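4.2 Preliminary Data

To establish feasibility before requesting continued support, the project team ran the inverse folding procedure on a target of 243 residues. The structure was first converted into the token representation described in Section 3, and no sequence information of any kind was made available to the design step. The complete token record follows.
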């Protein structure tokens, strides 16, 4: 989405580092307590093309991200994670990104896992690599979160025709071609299911890859409530029935 945000781009590293032309897109809303740490972690693992989309935060997320000398985009109002990812992906494509990573702002994702997702896409075996917390035997997903996510898997299977082990994981890698094909129109959290639906409809090859998700008190506090997840599911069903 373009035309309704301000941005300040302060990239100071060449795109052709050892990680190649990889862009990491982070959607952030009121994440000033974690965004700096997340960016530092990505840089320690060699990722320099980092795009933070501040989704109309009421705290100091924009300023905290800007201090880390990365590209920072800002929605003037809160539009939702789906809209933020679309903004960040559009920006990365405009900078000739070959690979685009979507990465959470709350510290749940591990930078060291990016390479395994990238390897699948770079090999040409898939246009999209989808992170899955349930392909690892040591998954520490809280019980109620696990139940909600398992129900989400069934809903996505029913609506989109794809059965995944983890259908609502925000950790993904897209090839440039795949990112250009996927059109995110769901501004808020149901965008995760829409991405899966787009993969199915556009016949984009995909593969799930094991990743680790760390649940801290902070990240659990930022996550979706059970009731909110139910509302998202109902919106997904309504959207499918009316299209």
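Position-by-position output of the design step:
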């Amino acid at each position: 989405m373009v035309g309704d945000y301000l941005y300040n781009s302060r990239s100071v590293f060449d795109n052709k580092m050892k990680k190649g032309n990889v862009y990491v897109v982070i959607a952030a809303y009121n994440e000033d307590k974690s965004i700096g740490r997340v960016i530092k972690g990505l840089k320690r693992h060699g990722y320099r093309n980092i795009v933070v989309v501040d989704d109309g935060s009421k705290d100091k997320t924009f300023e905290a991200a800007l201090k880390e000398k990365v590209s920072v985009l800002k929605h003037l109002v809160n539009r939702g994670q789906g809209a933020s990812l679309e903004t960040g992906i559009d920006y990365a494509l405009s900078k000739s990104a070959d690979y685009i990573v979507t990465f959470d702002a709350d510290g749940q994702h591990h930078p060291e896992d990016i390479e395994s997702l990238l390897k699948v896409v770079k090999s040409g075996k898939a246009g999209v690599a989808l992170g899955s917390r349930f392909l690892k035997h040591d998954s520490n997903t809280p019980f109620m979160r696990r139940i909600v996510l398992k129900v989400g898997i069934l809903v996505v299977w029913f609506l989109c025709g794809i059965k995944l082990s983890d259908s609502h994981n925000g950790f993904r890698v897209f090839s440039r071609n795949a990112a250009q094909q996927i059109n995110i129109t769901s501004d808020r959290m149901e965008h995760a299911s829409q991405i899966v639906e787009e993969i199915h409809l556009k016949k984009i090859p995909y593969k799930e890859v094991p990743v680790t998700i760390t649940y801290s008190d902070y990240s659990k506090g930022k996550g979706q409530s059970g009731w909110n997840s139910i509302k998202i599911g109902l919106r997904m069903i309504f959207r499918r029935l009316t299209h």
